[in-house]
Amino acid sequence: MSVTPSPDGLRVSHAPRVSGASPTKTDATAPGTPPPSPSLRDTESLRDTDEAPRIVPRRHPGRWLSAAVALLALAMAVNSVIRNERFQWGVVGQYFTTPAVLDGLLLTLWLTAAVMVLGFLIGTVFAVMRLSANPVLRTISWGYVWIFRSTPLLVQLLFWFNIGALYPTLGIGIPFGPEFVTFKTVNLFGAGLTALIGLTLHEAAYAAEVVRGGILSVDAGQTEAAASLGLSRPRVLRRVIVPQAMRSIVPTAGNMLIGTLKGTSIVSVLAVQDLLFSVQLIYNRTYQVIPLLMVATIWYIIVTTVLSAGQFYIERHYARGAARELPPTPLQRLRRRLHTLGVRLRTASAPDAKPL
């Protein structure tokens, strides 16, 4: 049977079947005609019979060797710290939660929080002044940042601690006129207040530059678009510029927060009973210097770890956007790795699994 085209459609003609010939397959093709392409059934049979090529990942012997060396060095360091009796870990555990140490830790945390809040409030004001069109405000802001960034923090603390030598009394009144209220600086500037003022003014100088850099990182088109809607400049700054600038401000502010936490230990020179000064009082009495310093070190590490975790989630919050993918949290990374490991184990334990 053959099918041939005709003007009216397809015409079927019946031909006698030759015995011994295959009805679906011919032994030869006409000269000049291309060989027939394999059918879908032939392709599926080839896929079933032939083994698919396996992709072998590239080996990295140097990576494994460097990881082994690093782990060996880390194990040696941990072993030397744990098994060294001179650290006196029993003494560390004895003084780790004593009332004197906890009181010093609370004072350190309070001082850190107060300095960061007040420093960024004052720094934001100076940052806006630096970006102002008023030349007087720009000059004052630049001079403030220049002075407090040019002098060491310890010098500033000692200066404020001895402010009574320059100004025995301070008063409130009319400039170049009578004073209504006067008080002695000796009674006003104690050790705690001196530490708060010195750290805050020093922190505000750096915070001003951080906030100014974050504001300048926002595209100028955002300000123009907000101005075209009739929004006032303070509202544009508060509702449009600052939320977008937080993406640049938060990482640097987090580093400043951790630096301020550790920098508060410098107030021990003013006899402020922070964490470091508290452990110093103890080991000056017991002569157990190393274990008491380890107590302060461990507390600093714990608090810094908590602050770093908070910084991560704050950065993740301000990283939201239509074209941005939020970074995975540590818990999400752990779940993803466990899921991948489970899939590999199920694949390897399947009955028809091929050896890797």
Question: What keywords describe this structure?
Answer:
356 residues; mainly alpha; two-stranded antiparallel sheet
What is the terminal-to-terminal distance? 53 Å
User: What is the structural class?
Assistant: mainly alpha
Number of strands: 4
Order of helices and strands: EEHHHHHHEEHHHHHHH
Report the portion of residues in β strands.
Answer: 5-15%
Largest sheet: 2 strands, antiparallel
What is the overall silhouette? Answer: flat
Strand order of the largest sheet: 1-2
Percent helix range:
55-70%
The Rg value, from CA coordinates, equals: 38 Å
The average pLDDT is 81
Helical stretch tally? 13
Pick out the low-confidence regions: 9-16, 18-29
Short précis:
The protein is mainly alpha-helical. The chain has helices at residues 40-49, 61-82, 89-95, 99-130, 135-150, 153-161, 185-188, 191-216, 220-228, 233-263, 275-286, 289-318, 330-348; strands at 2-6, 9-13, 169-173, 179-184. Residues 9-16 and 18-29 have low confidence and may be disordered.
Describe, in plain words, how this protein is organized in 3D.
The chain is mainly alpha-helical. The chain has 13 helices and 4 strands. Strand 3 (169-173) and strand 4 (179-184) form a beta hairpin. Helix 4 (99-130) packs antiparallel against helix 5 (135-150) and helix 4 packs antiparallel against helix 10 (233-263). The longest helix is centred in the first third of the chain and has 32 residues, at 99-130. Residues 9-16 and 18-29 have low confidence and may be disordered.
